[in-house]
Amino acid sequence: MDAISFVLGIRGSKLRSADLKDLIYSETAMHEDRDKNITKDSPSRASVTAVIEDVKHSEHRFQRTVTANGSSEYRYNGRITTQNSYMGKLEQLNILVKTRNFLVFQGDVESIAEQCSKDLSDLLDHVSGSRSLKLEYDRAHTAYDEVSEQSAGLVSKRKLLQGELRQVRQHKEASDRFGVLKADLHYHTIQKILWRLYHIQEIIEIHSDWIEAHASRGEQSRKRLFEKEQLLAEARKLLGNVQQTKLNLENERKHVIRSLDTIRPEKERLVERIDHASRKLEQAQFLYSQANKDHVAQKEALVHLEDDTNLVQKCSEQIKRDQEAALANTSIKLSEVDLQTYHDLKLKSQSTVEGERSRVERLQRESRERQNALEAEQDRIQEADTRIERLNQQLQSLTESFTVLERREPESAESIERSKTALAELQREKERIILRERELNEVLVGCYNRLLRMGQDQRVHERETRLRESLRSLRTIFSGVHGRLMDLCKPTQRKYELAIATALGRNAEAVVVNHEKTAVECIEYLRNQRAGQATFIPLDTIQTKLINDRLRSLSPQARLAIDVIQFPPAVERAVHYACGNTMVCDTLDVARNICYERGQRVKAVSLDGTIIHKTGMITGGPSMQETIKKWDDQEMQGVQRERDRCMAELKELQHQKYSLEEEDDLVAVLSRAQASLQSIEAEKSDLLRQKNDLVTECTELELRKKSAQTVVEKTNSALTELSSQISHLEKVIYAADDEVFREFCLRIGVENVREYEANQLQFSQTLNAATQQYQRQLARLAHQRTFTEQQVKSTAARLEFIQATIDKEMYRIPHLKEELRRCEDQMHSLRESKVRIDEALQSARHEHTEKSDALNEKRKIVSNAMRDVDAHRKEVAERNDEIAQLDAERANMYRRCRLEALDLPLISGDLSSVLLEENVQVPGPEADDAVQPCRSYDITVDFSSLSDADRMDRGSSRERELQRRIDSAREEMENLTPSTNTAERLDSLEKELQACERDIDDCREQVRDAREEFELVKKKRTDLFMKAYNHIAERIDGVYKELTKTKAAPMGGVAYLTLEDSDVRSMDMLTTGTFSDRNPLPCDAPYETFPRHGSTFRRRKNYGSIGFAIRHPYVSASAFLCAG
After folding, report:
1. What is the CATH number of the domain that holds 57?
2. How many whole angstroms separate alpha carbon 101 and alpha carbon 1108?
3. CATH code assigned at 589
4. 498-523 residue pLDDT tens
5. What is the rounded CA–CA span in Å between residue 507 and residue 501?
6. CB count in 10 Å sphere of residue 678
7. Which pLDDT score, from 0 to 100, does residue 1119 have?
8. Fewer CB within 10 A of the terminal residue: the chain, N end or C end?
9. At what angle do helices 134-213 and 763-899 cross, to 10 degrees?
10. What's the rounded Cα separation, in Å, for the pair 303 and 313?
């Protein structure tokens, strides 16, 4: 495989060697260090020759040689040639090196079989040579698309021109109609202006005559008002003096209460400080007595320790003197020779019975260690006894303290019970007063609410009257005002009154007008007249929704609100706006069924006034149309008497509340008693805790003492055992020593050497042992004395600190008691002042009530007089405002005629005298009863063109008729869109359309030429692709059968290649190419070895033949086998 690839021009990087020189065969090629094993006999060149026979039976010889330095040499028919020429000769035989269509490598069959339809189509496109035409195909396709888009653009342009031409022709017809409508609009506008100017002049004359006739009545009303106001000023002055006195007394009372509130915490703080100082003094005295007892006991223990120390020192010195005297009397004197002999024999004896001697030394060492441990345990036992004795003393002291606290605890508990009883009684009394105050306040609230409703109903009645008067004035002054919506409509049956009033809601009081401009003018009029507020519904601008007819059939017990209301046709839009799709239901259950169960998003109102909103929220309440109740004076006086009685009882309850003992004092006493009891309980718990700790510590010390005694007993037993072992071993050692020292002992006159050593060494050892014992006792006594001295110093310092605390508290308590006495005297003085001020304040309040009642009577008289003056002044002002409003409206009409160039018929004057500025100041009336001056502009209008019907009809129906004619003409004019250059635009569009038709004919010729060129290239490419496809599809099955024949399957397998879409002829549109192999007979699985055929290589070569046939359909199988 490598040889074929090499001779047919495959590069070295595509072969299985890193370098071309690796292809040269050498015996040492498998050695690790190949470069070192190269010999002179190793080959330096290698070549491969391929002989190919073409269809004309001519042979072509190709040879490629590689040298040791890795360079290649190419020969064709024995002649050296270049690589490019070599490759060209191969391409002439249809062997393409780049596409490798001459050889099937390992893995190519599997990769081809696993390719998808699109990849397999790309492979056939490449092998067939169809891809070489791709650039020409893309260029022709692009050119065809461009001319197609250009043709579509021209067609679209023609459609636009035709539509625009149609619109221009319509505009020309509209321009002719617009001229006719413009003349009609001018005539109807002039007629309406003349009708309105005539009635404005008529109304102004009526108002001026009324004002002049009623001028004297206003003068008389103002004179009566002046006299009543003088009497009211005198009563107000008297009330002011009383009120100032009352205010001063209230301020003085607040100051006293504020002072009491300021002093009370100081008093509580002083009482708390005195109690705290007393408890602290008592506790300090108790602690001083306990500490003094401890101090005396510690001093006595220190004296005993000093006596014991002196006694031990004396005993140590005495035993030292006795031992030295005994040693001087019993000493044996030896010569130098005997001493040397003793030492030599001692060395000799050490070498005998060495094992026993070492065991004795070990046992003696162990005995000394156990003796030291025994002494340490005995010291611990003594220390435990001392500590237990001290703890017992502390337990006795704590028991005494606990007994004192138990005696104090019942006293504190009794004080708490007394304080709680007094506080409970005080709180019950206050609760009774508070409950009664609450009842009286509820009665007062009811009285005030009734009085408020009486006054409010009166005000509502007055407001209703004023609103009706204002509405009557609006209907007189402005045309197009229909009235309130609730007055214009009524329910079909009485049972729907509450539901309809609820459904209309806030729109029930709204005023219905024809135009938004009228609503703005009415609002301005109400603002100028100060006549209150009103909501307006303009019929020309409100947005109404269509009625959903499906809702009428939802339930027989529910109906649309619009269906149960009677109203004039003129206000139908306003009723639709206020009600919409609101449903009126007989019961709340029906409303719930519609809104919740059926899921209808509508507002439903039941007959009792309950509303279910679109959001699902339910609201309800009293009727909006509640009638106004007329309250009589007798009932109002009864309510006022009830109010005064409740106020007097409330004042008495306040006086009783002030006379009660202060609750804060009792709370403070109770808090102090509880704090004292809590302190006692805390001290008791602390003492119990300390006592438990001491008991626990005593128990632990007893356990330690028992444990130490057990250790002492075990140590004594061990020491006895060690002594017996040492005695047995010493007998063996003594026998050996007696044998060595026998002659020496006879010479110095002792029984044995131990007698000599005892005389010489016993005294010094005894003295050392006694000295060490006394030193240990002295050290222990010194340690105890140091600890006791520290305790004495600490207790003395504690006594000094406690004594200082006692002195400090003894000094503080008298001073605090003196401050408490001064504080109580000051509070007593303030309470007396408060009682005196309360009595004076009660008298001032009574006088203030009398003066207030007198002032209210005078205010009522002045109010009645002022009401008459205001009524006359308001009537005159309303008429003057209406005159001014009408005058302004007339001026605006003159200004409109001048600005819009309307030919208003005049008898005299000229519209040029009318000013164009709107904000021209008009002087007001000279007096309250004078007539508002008007602007005449010296213009007299000619009303001769008005008919008698127009002169007599001043209502809104005639105005609506005139406005309807104007709106009809204006609406038709607005729908028309005339243009001044319609004819010129029509000619230019016709010429442009003709030019577009010519461009479309030329573009069609270009599209036809581009399509023919594209189809030609497309056919060439399709033919190449289908030629390769047909060749492979016809031969692949026979080749595969030959390669897969076996004894078990003599027919072989089946292989085929198909097109999923046989109609597709372009590679850009070919989507699927399928390669499939089938083996209907039992045979070996793909890519497994063929043991019957001999080797795996043969199978791969056979499959490679199939892949070669797929890759290049123009190379025959014989040529391939020859090359192989």
Report:
1. 3.40.50.300
2. 7
3. 3.30.70.1620
4. 888 888 888 888 999 988 888 888 88
5. 9
6. 11
7. 33
8. C
9. 70
10. 16
